[in-house]
Amino acid sequence: MEKFVKEILVSPEAIAQKVAQLGQTITADYCGEELVLICVLKGAMVFAADLMRQIDLPIILDTIVASSYGNSTESSGEVIIKQDIKTNIKDKQVLVVDDIVDTGYTLHLLCEKLRQRGPKSLKSCTFLDKPSRRVVDFAPDYVGYEIPDAFVIGYGLDYNEQYRALPYVGIIKEEYIH
Ligand code: 5GP
């Protein structure tokens, strides 16, 4: 374990097992239909890359960059799309893939914005969920792991753009937060 990690919450083995399970569930739920998978950058890119290879369906991949107003540690009730998808999602089956849901603002508001474009269906999938932190009434359709209220890094998740490449999800030591 790296020196800046206090505790590993999700091991590489547990990640692989859960991603395979999510892939099977999603494959069964959409049953042969084409899926537009929207990866919320940058945090979800590692998860989305793994997940799409566990989904046995025709997939159109797109990416989006969203940002919620407010400071770096607390989200707020506004989300802006900083870089939009290129796919026309009207009448398409859409799955928005994110890394973590905390207050719920970002994914909830992003899904609302995308819904206005008239997809046939729109669901959300997050690898991690912190339900105890939820501020808005929002439940992702697919969840990998529920975790306690702690700041986590790895498997795509960063602190100040570092640690995204860690192969596990861990809690960062306090002395490395500044
Ligand atoms: P929400 O709008 O749900 O409060 O915030 C979601 C976003 O906050 C995530 O996409 C992620 O960028 C960031 N975030 C929330 N909790 C954590 C965490 O524990 N670690 C990291 N690295 N980012 C987090």
Q: Would you write up a description of this structure?
A:
It is a single chain. The chain is α/β, with parallel strands linked by helices and about 180 residues long. It has a single domain, classed as Rossmann fold, CATH 3.40.50. The protein has 3 helices and 9 strands. The chain has a 6-stranded mixed β-sheet with strand order 4-3-2-5-6-7. It has a 3-stranded antiparallel β-sheet with strand order 1-9-8, with helices on one face. Helix 1 crosses helix 2. The longest helix is centred in the N-terminal third of the chain and has 19 residues. It is globular, with a radius of gyration of 16 Å. The chain starts with a strand and ends in a 6-residue tail after the last strand. About 35% of the residues are buried. The mean pLDDT is about 95. The structure holds guanosine-5'-monophosphate. The site of guanosine-5'-monophosphate (5GP) has 18 residues, from strand 5, helix 3 and strand 8.
Q: Which ligands occur here?
A: guanosine-5'-monophosphate
Q: Which fold name fills CATH's third level, the topology? A: Rossmann fold
What's the total count of β strands? 9
Structural class: alpha/beta
Strand content: 25-35%
CATH architecture title: 3-Layer(aba) Sandwich
Task: Set down the secondary structure blueprint.
Elements: E1 5-10, H1 12-30, E2 35-41, H2 45-52, E3 59-68, E4 79-83, E5 93-101, H3 105-115, E6 121-129, E7 142-146, E8 152-153, E9 169-172
Helix pairs in contact: 1-2
The chain binds guanosine-5'-monophosphate.
Residues 43, 68, 75, 98-106, 151-153, 157-159 line the site of guanosine-5'-monophosphate.
